What does this fold into?
Amino acid sequence: MRILIVEDEKKVASFIKRGLEDENYQVTVSNDGVDGFRRANSGEYDLLILDYMLPKKDGLTVLQELREAGNQIPVLMLTAKAETADVVSALDAGADDFMVKPFVFNELQARVRALTRRSKQDRGAEIRFADLRLDPVNHKVWRGQVEIVLTAKEYSLLAYLVRNAGKTLSRANIADNCWEYPFETFTNIIDVYINYLRKKVDGDFPNKLIQTVRGKGYILKNG
Ligand code: CA
It folds into this structure.
């Protein structure tokens, strides 16, 4: 499992690098956005840990350019300040998760584990629900004949909904299974992601599969 860290604060970068190397990840550090983009887009890494404020090119631009290039590498965004605006724009640009600095290593570890877990899990057969089809090996999704392009996080959320189709899932259930850590600050992140999924999965289709259960959570239901 190869991880790229793009972070100009040397102390933070080496703290993350050492911790992840102890967990047997192969880690490369890049110190600016231009070099970081080039490496991240090389296809050589399984996960990108991307700082928001970077010299030469900021993290948000790096992320936007990667997604525009069709690169779906899982991205964990780091942000120095707890500004919701930064977090939301990072998520809008296709970040899979985010962390606010300073953080303890255990928190980072949980997020890295969640984002890299898919390669271990992805050996099953296709998953289907209604006219939805999920390919767990390549993380591709179709509705009927239409391919739906999802980020890694959106995919894991949809896969969880499909595996539990017909059951009402609370935000806590979803957080436990798709994020592996509890939310305290940004509990609305689940709603944000459900909205992304709705736009992509249900957007143009008359039959809406992702439904809200008022006061309880969400359910994947056919009709
Ligand atoms: Ca920085």
